[in-house]
């Protein structure tokens, strides 16, 4: 029995293209995305543009006010510091629970990050970075922890865009995450917690 795959819709394709541009930093925070201009640029109908923008608004990457064009969401350094204030206890729980365990999904995400070509869009780095941390959270086995962490995903991804200026050498980012996974995998708990706390204690390229 053959199960045919449904081709990617124009809405999904456009949403993917715009998401890549946002997460690569090509579209700066506050950039307006007029429907008419996007329609002409990508050669699609305005209803398609409207639906694709709605996808990214739902993901938190864009913001939209009534009677105004959608804009790339802006996250300030103060927002990001507050984000880390909330993330730290969640990831501390993760470190305490997973100390002494390897998480295959996180190791695979790190391998994919390391294998990205030098000219890969920063959006691809963001995707694997998010996949690595999400795999660690999922491995804890707490649906509530997953929901709390997922609620922070949009701001986290937008924060990672800023790290492009911090990690001009991608190998440094890969090495930091390899050290993190090794510390969690080897344990003990206190060492894993210290490694996670140190990993989350960074600037945002301000």
Description:
The chain is mainly alpha-helical. The protein has helices spanning 10-23, 35-42, 46-59, 77-98, 104-115, 122-140, 143-150, 153-162, 170-186, 189-200, and strands at 32-33, 62-63, 70-72. It has a three-stranded antiparallel sheet. A hairpin with a 6-residue loop joins strand 2 (62-63) and strand 3 (70-72). The longest helix is centred in the middle third of the chain and has 22 residues, at 77-98. The protein is elongated, with a radius of gyration of 19 Å. The relative contact order is 0.13. The mean pLDDT is 90.
Features:
3 strands; 206 residues
Quick check: average pLDDT? 90
- The percentage of residues in β strands lies in under 5%
Structural class: mainly alpha
Work out the radius of gyration.
19 Å
The level of helicity is 55-70%
Annotation, overall tally of beta strands: 3
Uncertain runs are: none
How far is the first residue's CA from the last residue's CA? Answer: 55 Å
Strand order of the largest sheet: 1-3-2
Secondary structure tally, helices:
10
- What is the 3D form? elongated
**Main beta-sheet strand count, sense and barrel state:** 3 strands, antiparallel
Order of helices and strands: HEHHEEHHHHHHH
């Amino acid at each position: 029995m053959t199960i045919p795959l449904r081709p990617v819709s124009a809405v999904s394709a456009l949403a993917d293209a715009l998401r890549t541009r946002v997460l690569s930093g090509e579209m700066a925070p506050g950039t307006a995305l007029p429907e008419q201009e996007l329609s002409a640029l990508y050669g699609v109908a305005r209803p398609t543009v409207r639906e694709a923008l709605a996808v990214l608004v739902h993901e938190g990457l864009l913001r939209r006010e009534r009677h105004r064009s959608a804009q790339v969401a802006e996250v300030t350094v103060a927002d990001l510091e507050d984000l880390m204030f909330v993330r730290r206890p969640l990831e501390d729980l993760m470190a305490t629970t997973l100390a002494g365990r390897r998480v295959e999904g996180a190791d695979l995400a790190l391998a994919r990050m390391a294998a990205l070509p030098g000219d890969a869009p920063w959006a691809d780095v963001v995707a694997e970075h998010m996949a690595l941390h999400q795999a660690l959270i999922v491995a804890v086995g707490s649906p509530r922890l997953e929901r709390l962490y997922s609620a922070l995903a949009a701001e986290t991804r937008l924060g990672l865009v800023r790290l492009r200026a911090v990690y001009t050498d991608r190998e440094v980012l890969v090495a930091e995450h390899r050290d993190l996974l090794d510390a969690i995998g080897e344990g003990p708990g206190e060492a894993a917690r210290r490694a996670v706390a140190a990993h989350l204690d960074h600037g945002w390229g301000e």
